[in-house]
Specification:
- The complex is a heterodimer of chains A (about 525) and B (about 500).
- Helices cover about 50% and strands about 15% of the residues of chain A.
- Chain A is built from 20 helices and 13 strands.
- Chain A is globular and about 70 Å long.
- Chain B is about 40% helix and about 15% strand.
- In chain B, a hairpin with a 7-residue loop joins strand 9 and strand 10.
- Classes of the chains: A alpha+beta (about 525), B alpha+beta (about 500).
- At the A-B interface, helix 1, helix 2, helix 6, helix 7 and helix 8 of A face helix 1, helix 2, helix 3, strand 4 and strand 5 of B.
């Protein structure tokens, strides 16, 4: 998903306490393993734009090597020898969209457990540990049964037994050994994210540790042991409390997606519903893992100071160990057509927010680039239409932003627009102003200048992303997995360059219809008490 | 930021490496070539390139090439402006950052927000020759950016452009720095947005936590913790902003660093053209830093938020500076406590399942004392066990010791990842400028590297004993008091409520 606020690279923010909230917690809807604490217009022609930059984009072709192992694992290697470091990404084309109803949160739970080690890493004695883990699973099943039967005495007895076995199992655990190995080796940025579309595991290492990555990562998904399963459940429940239950925006996003996508894969929270998480068993996660973590859903990218032939040699040695097996059938994503506007209002301990989402097709739809351009014209930068009309000139919103491809884009999804009311202004004023801009798009052609701006910005942002190992590892994997080829990252630019004012009007007329909208409002609790 | 390596991240990488790496690759290439021939002929495999998978413990690694710091050019213009230039031709991009000797710690106490607003409107208000809309239009048509801001201890101005537009954007950048227009309408917009920010500052528990914890440590009047209020905003007029700008945004109080796809000689003359005739109207300000002492020493404070199901917790006391002689030992301590595999994550998160976020680190600053800060979030009912667990880990640091294994791990982690501090030229230049701004030695990062390598387990224990003081720890809980069970009183301390009601306009 592409998350945007108007000043992507600006200095605003210290006085804007919602920024972190909007970006980290709610709107960029992927959940991570952990959080590291801390803190005179010149219209240029297309041809001028292309000739200046094209050689740098063409060069990428020479920097990239790709190969596929016999079992179907796809590798993409991009050489950048500026510094002796490499960024790695394993992208499973599997996310919360693959979960069954009642098992929400399984993809993310699995992501957490993928840091718990193997039969060799993370344990002092797996042979002794293993039966205890099995015993815990049995006891947990019995606890659930006793709870269902309302037998509280039995539940208490079983819980005591469970606690004792859990304590014993813990004595065999070398906690977070996997993470320690990576950090000790000089690894940075170790983390993982789960979204509706994908589960991604990543970090960077000094370039001399290529084989360490091969060894660790191939064993990691070949022989995982989901130890500390029940402790981690509490961790994930805390994560859910932080991101959703105690965050006004987080709560709204969950309700908004449910409203916009009834009975659809994107209508459920990636982190999972609390009840589903509480009832989740280790078998559930094993099932998800064996069903979905198949080699043909695995894309590996590495960007940095590597020799692609050496990568290929080591990849064959380490990753050919995965037996080829068929993918699970593709998810059936059928969204019942929307016939009337939908809306959801939450009264919370918060100042007002206004959200509006419109359904759009998936990433591989021929009009994808048109949606990108529309979003750019509306929300990208200080000259964008919504920023000017809501924030700068209209002053009815403190800030605004958009998320295109929300909450994923493998399947039909949403373009989401949001605004925070300025003092003395209402969500209805934001709604009216947004609709004025949407109507303009449906009825008047956009200017050549605006089109040109968005095209240049797309080009420049692609060039800027080439300077980042981590960024490229992420982009190449994502395009490979979702569109079938990393080259689409570059051909998308060409498609954007072809977009015309007529395209923008045509797609705006399809998208900005009253029967295609979901509206979300956060209103202060005090207003509910008044009404 | 807990480590040097995380200080700065921006663009691309040094060229000096290219040559040596190319040599390395050629060597690799030759080795590979030979191996392939052998395989084709069917003679089996080279022992140096075993073709069976190995567990990580069986692996050995060639040393990394020595870190080469790329040469940058430093010049001082006649008007006192210091310029740092570093070429990097990987991509057709040029970017620059200026640092100004200022900061919101220098604004009057009854005008909190003055520095921040000045820093924002410098850019958002456009220049004498290019009103805001026109400036925005030119920049965005070129996918370029100019941004300015004034933070706690410095001001900044930055730009980014494609190479072909760099000259034009640098001209505009000079205008923004030298001739900002400060139109009233943009000042009004900035004010209204800050008023909205005040109204929203209690919407998120972590924003309450950070703000109130700062006040407990530094004091609510301290420049390092005081907050923007409607009343302080009302005291800010356009002439105050212009005066603040005039006082601090001067060539003799400015450093400018530029990285990217340019020729140093050409860039020097371009800078001479755009900034050379700018004369300081007053001597560079000498800054007297505000004194710092811990405001609340010890104690338990609570912000009651009945809508919450999770407590946000911070525990800490006043800390120190980056140039403290024991900073390396304290960094090792940070490593032992934090990270995936650190004591806190292992114990409080992974073993006890009490939190998703938990941390404790010595957060040092360049030129004033930072904070030793621990904390995280936990479900309401686990608040007391969480506080006890974190405090127990702090106590163990002081009374126990760290093992050789922990020391080695911490050292390896810092030293092996050291190369990431040199990943991009902009990172390197920015560090050089920061050191000069704060009067640190140019090789500070290498001194730090050496000090980490020299640290012993005794050093860490001594540092923990000397620098961590349980009697001074202040604890702040933002949570739903009624749901905290066992109650906060079971910690054996009186808890003091903090009222976060937003003072209405006077």
């Amino acid at each position: 998903m592409r998350c945007k606020t108007p000043g992507g690279q600006d200095g605003r923010g210290r006085w804007a306490p919602w920024r972190m909230l909007a970006i980290a917690m709610g709107l960029c809807l992927s959940v991570t393993l952990w959080l590291v604490p801390q803190p005179s217009a010149i219209a240029r022609t297309l041809s001028a734009r292309a000739t200046d930059i094209q050689p740098y984009l063409d060069r990428v072709d020479d920097q990239i090597t790709e190969f596929t192992l016999d079992n179907g694992i796809r590798f993409i290697v991009m050489e950048r020898h500026q510094a002796p470091v490499v960024s790695f990404m394993i992208h499973f084309n599997v996310g919360a969209a693959e979960e069954e109803d009642g098992k929400t949160g399984a993809a993310h739970y699995l992501e957490h457990l993928a840091f718990k080690g193997t039969s060799l890493v993370g344990t002092s004695d797996y042979e002794a540990e293993r039966p205890l883990l099995d015993q815990l699973d049995e006891l947990f099943d019995q606890i659930l049964a006793a709870r269902a039967a309302g037998d509280m005495d039995e539940e208490t007895r079983l819980q005591a037994e469970f606690d004792a076995v859990q304590a014993e199992a813990a004595t065999y655990v070398n906690q977070n050994e996997f993470g320690r190995i990576v950090e000790e080796a000089g690894g940075v940025g170790l983390n993982a994210t789960t979204s509706a579309d994908a589960t991604r595991y990543f970090y960077s290492l000094p370039a001399n540790k290529l084989e360490l990555w091969m060894s660790l990562e191939s064993e990691r998904f070949l022989d995982p042991v989901f130890r500390e399963f029940y402790e981690e459940k509490d961790v994930i429940l805390e994560e859910r409390r932080m991101r959703t239950d105690n965050s006004p925006v987080g709560k709204m996003i969950e309700a908004f997606l449910e409203t916009s996508f009834p009975d659809y894969i994107y209508g459920r929270p990636v982190i999972g519903y609390e009840d589903d998480l509480r009832n989740m068993t280790r078998d559930d996660i094993y099932d998800f893992y064996t069903t979905h973590y198949t080699p043909r859903r695995m894309t590996v990218t590495m960007v940095g100071d590597v020799n692609p032939r050496e990568v290929q040699r080591l990849a064959r040695i380490y990753f050919s160990r995965y037996p080829d097996r068929p993918n699970a059938p593709d998810v059936v994503a059928e969204l019942a057509p929307q016939t009337e506007p939908r809306d959801v209002t939450l009264y919370l301990n918060s100042e007002p927010w206004y959200l509006e989402g419109y359904h759009r097709p998936d990433l591989n739809h021929p009009d994808h680039s048109v949606y990108t351009v529309i979003n750019g014209i509306l929300t990208r930068g200080r000259t964008s239409r919504l920023y000017k009309s809501l924030v700068q000139d209209g002053r009815i919103a403190l800030d605004m932003g958009a998320a295109d491809g929300f909450p994923g884009d493998r399947f039909p999804n949403l373009v989401l627009f949001y605004g925070l009311t300025a003092p003395g202004h209402t969500v209805d004023e934001i709604k009216t102003a947004m609709h004025q801009e949407f109507d303009r798009l449906r009825t008047e052609p956009v200017t050549a200048e605006e089109l040109d701006r968005v095209k240049t910005q797309s080009l420049a942002s692609l060039v800027r992303s080439l300077a980042s190992n981590q960024g490229m590892a992420s982009l190449l994997a994502s395009y490979q997995a979702k569109t079938g080829s990393w080259r689409n990252l570059f051909s998308e630019l060409e498609a954007i360059n072809q977009v015309t004012a007529e395209d923008v009007m045509r797609v705006s007329q399809v998208m900005f219809r009253p029967d295609n909208v979901t509206t979300g409002r956060i209103l202060p609790l005090a207003e509910q008490e008044e009404t | 930021m807990q480590r040097l390596k995380r200080w700065q991240w921006i663009k691309t990488a040094p060229q000096q490496w290219r040559a040596s790496l190319q040599r390395k690759l050629i060597r690799y290439g030759l080795v590979m070539g030979l191996t392939m021939v052998v395989l084709v002929l069917g003679f089996g495999r080279s022992p140096a390139l075993a073709d069976t998978p190995r567990h990580y413990t069986e692996l050995e690694f060639a040393p990394l090439p020595e870190i080469q710091v790329p040469n940058y050019t430093r010049v001082e213009l006649d008007n006192g402006m210091k310029v740092f230039l570093l070429e990097d031709h990987e991509l057709p991009l040029v970017s620059g950052t200026a640092i100004f000797g200022t900061g919101d710690r220098l604004e009057p106490a009854d005008q909190v927000g003055l520095a921040d607003m000045t820093g924002e409107v410098m850019r958002s208000g456009g220049t004498i020759n290019h009103p805001a809309d026109e400036l925005n239009q030119i920049l965005e048509q070129d996918a370029a950016s100019i941004e300015t801001g004034i933070g706690g201890a410095s001001g900044s101005a930055s730009f980014g452009a494609l190479t072909k537009d760099a000259g034009e954007v640098l001209q505009l950048f000079a205008e923004v720095v030298r001739q900002p227009a400060f139109p009233q309408e943009k000042i009004d917009l900035a004010k209204s947005q800050r008023e909205g920010g005040i109204a929203r500052r209690n919407d998120d528990p972590n924003s309450i936590l950070g703000r109130e914890f700062g006040k407990l440590i530094y004091g609510e009047e301290s420049p390092y913790a005081r907050t923007l209020e409607y009343s302080t905003l009302d005291n800010i007029a356009r002439e105050d902003m212009v005066a603040f700008y005039d006082r601090y945004i001067q060539p003799n109080n400015m450093m400018l660093g530029i990285v990217g796809d340019f020729d140093t000689r050409e860039m020097r003359s371009l800078i001479e053209e755009t900034f050379g005739d700018w004369q300081a109207t007053q001597p560079a300000p000498t800054v007297e830093l505000p004194p710092v002492e811990q405001a609340q020493v010890g104690g338990l404070f609570v912000v009651d938020q009945p809508q919450l199901t999770q407590s946000s917790i911070r525990i800490g006391h006043l800390g120190g500076q980056l140039n403290d002689p024991n900073y390396a030992s304290l960094s090792v301590m940070n490593e032992v406590m934090n990270g995936l595999g650190g004591r806190l994550v292992n114990e409080v998160r992974s073993r006890q399942g009490l939190a998703y976020v938990v941390y404790a680190f010595w957060s040092a600053r360049y030129d004033y004392p930072g904070i030793f800060v621990a904390g995280g979030q936990t479900r309401s009912e686990a608040t007391v066990p969480f506080i006890q667990a974190v405090k127990a880990e702090i106590e163990t640091l002081r009374t126990g010791s760290i093992t050789d294994e922990e020391l080695n791990r911490a050292q390896d982690s810092v030293l092996n990842s050291f190369v990431f501090s040199f990943e991009r030229p902009s990172q390197i230049l920015s560090r050089v400028m920061n050191y000069e701004y704060y009067g640190y030695p140019e090789d500070f990062i290498f001194q730090y590297q050496q000090a980490i390598a020299d640290t012993t387990t005794e050093d860490v224990l001594n540092a923990a004993r000397t620098y961590l003081d349980p009697s001074k720890l202040v604890t702040l809980v933002v949570g739903n008091v009624a749901e905290i069970d066992p109650p906060l009183s079971s910690l054996g301390m009186e808890s003091t409520p903090i009222d976060v009601t937003i003072p209405p306009r006077g």
